[in-house]
Specification:
By secondary structure, this protein is an alpha/beta fold. 42% of the residues lie in helices and 15% in strands. It has two domains: 11-236, Rossmann fold (3-Layer(aba) Sandwich); 247-289. The chain has six helices and eight strands; from the N terminus they run βαββαββααββαβα. Strands 2-3-1-5-6-7 form a six-stranded mixed β-sheet, with helices on both faces. Strands 4-8 form a two-stranded antiparallel sheet. Helix 1 packs across helix 5 (205-231). It comes from Rotaria sordida. InterPro entries: P-loop_NTPase, Sigma_54_int_dom_ATP-bd_1. This is G domain-containing protein.
Amino acid sequence: MAAGGANNSSSEINVVIIGETGTGKSTFINYLTNLFYNGSLTNLKVAIPTHYLKANMSSIMPQHHEACLEDGTGSKTTKCTKYTFTVEQVHFNFFDTPGINDTGGYLSDNENVDRIFECIQTLQHLTALVLVLNGTQARLTVNIRNVLERFRDRIPDVIYRNIIVILTNCASHTVNFGSVKLLNHAPVFHMQNSAFSSDARKWTSQTREILQRDWNISMQTMNDFIKTLITLKPISTESLSAMNDDRNAIRSILHESRLMIMELQHIEDELTALEQASNIYSANVEKYSSINGQPTKSIQASK
């Protein structure tokens, strides 16, 4: 690894990776693995298995939680998994998270978002929140936009200062993705996933030449990405916990308010029912008096 600059005697850099299913979050981890462990196109280091490649870093990497390797529409990462790379006593911790917008639907997305927040809250500090997007798409999908809005509601603005965007399946000159309006001024990196997305047994000499060029560019991008991480100031997650406590307090107040409104509505309904019953009773008395031809007598006090 050539990033350099990690001269602290002991420190942790915590990075949480989020994104839609199939955008390349796990492949991003694989590229980082090759950066830190000097992998090459002919000697790929695979931390997370792909459709074409088996994991070969089990002795130094955690057990992966990948599923649906044959299906690109289902979330391959089923829980948050920590991958640590250590350089000069600096621990780079990357947390791969379940994908958003998979075949599980809205409820599955909610569960995955909750897992991501639980993951962040276990950390004392967060160095960066990395958003991985498919660079061949023209714009944010509805699902990921909704998720980002939910993140905006639940994450303090201070954490958004340290967000980084990774656009996959593209180079800087081939990207088809428009500006991310929710993430103004966020650093953007472009990564080509080709080395892990095709069958090496079918590569021709020309294909290898193209892939090698893409590989060199991607490795430089990973190196620049690490350099950017080193410059970021870690942010305490206490603000996230405080914000979450405030949210829970507000929810409690809203819940109590709803109960109070329901009780008031119940009382109002009872008063309305009593008023209606009184009106019916009065109408019946008047009707009965009219039928018997007897005027209503008033009671006067005796002199």
